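Fold this: Acetyl-CoA acetyltransferase
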Amino acid sequence: MSDAYIVQALRTAGGKRNGKLASWHPADMAGEILNALVDRSGIDPAAIEDVILGCVSQVGEQSFHIARNAVLASRLLDSVPAVTIDRQCGSSQQALQFAAQAVMSGTQDMVIAAGVESMTRVPMGSPVSLAQKAGLGSPWSERIRKRYGVDEFSQFTGAQMVAEKYKFTRRQLDEFALLSHQRAAAATLAGAFKKEIVPLQVADGWHDTDEGIRYDANLESIGAVKLLKEGGVLSAANASQMCDGASGVLVVNERALKTHNLEPLARIHNLTVTGGDPVIMLEEPIPGTRKALQKSGLSIDDIDLYEVNEAFAPIPLAWLQAVGANPDKLNVNGGAIALGHPLGASGCKLMATLLNALIARGKRYGLQAMCEGGGLANVTIVEVL
């Protein structure tokens, strides 16, 4: 079986909800990422054999097969097929894993994995809320509710449960949120994101800088934000920001490297997906990471950098504690608390940031982990070449 290689990994700069990317239709935003992957790699667009694109809220402008519409909005040939997938927040990380599996098997040689989410134009939870308004029922059947003893599954509830299980205080979560902003601000000012960001034209010029970073953040201002639940420890300030964005990764096998004279950035070392408790749900990156390390023959000490999505501050903090990881290696350029979490786009977005951080530091192994609705997790290990 052939190895899978990453040739390019790109993303848009994050746009705040109702911010600079609000005017961009999500299909067009994703189409620009597809164009950039082809342009920067120098390949013939006809060589792309498939586009696998993640998107969570597949309704409205993100309905009717957003992956195909992204291809139609790009300069790719209309003969390039596409498929849209939903593994919740891990949708585009799963797109990357599916793309890797395709080229490893030899079924295809060159595949684009991508993701998109406009949380401005298609608000989070729209598929469920619109269906309920139309009287179309709930995604959770009575059988499921009885089995798990809940009326619905909530990521907010899961995050609070994780915080309570690991005994995190609000101050600890707020301190982590502050660090996210500080790291993201430092990385931005140092130009660390320039290679991975695809600028998009907006009303006042070009959008090429993540919009959600608070350069003046401090513990007092973060601590003043209202709690999401009375008596809890979560607030909007220590959770990920709603965000508009798109991302993509060009994945190829060795045959494509030789045929198209391409230089890979990294080899995909391990692909893991796991499922667990759907109620606490967001704790699953912990067993997912353990499984990925065991299957790869690596230890956590072998990993040079980690990207663990900051859906809520307790998730990466619990991950650090449970797997015995080094906090200095975690989300070194900030995370979703500062940079935003564009749901279906976050998987490939984190991979672009992880690879560029590894290359900039001359490091070898990177691990990316994503918590997902329903108690799922994707974990991907890459090796820089």
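The first helix runs from residue 26 to 41. The CA atoms of residues 106 and 179 lie 43 Å apart.
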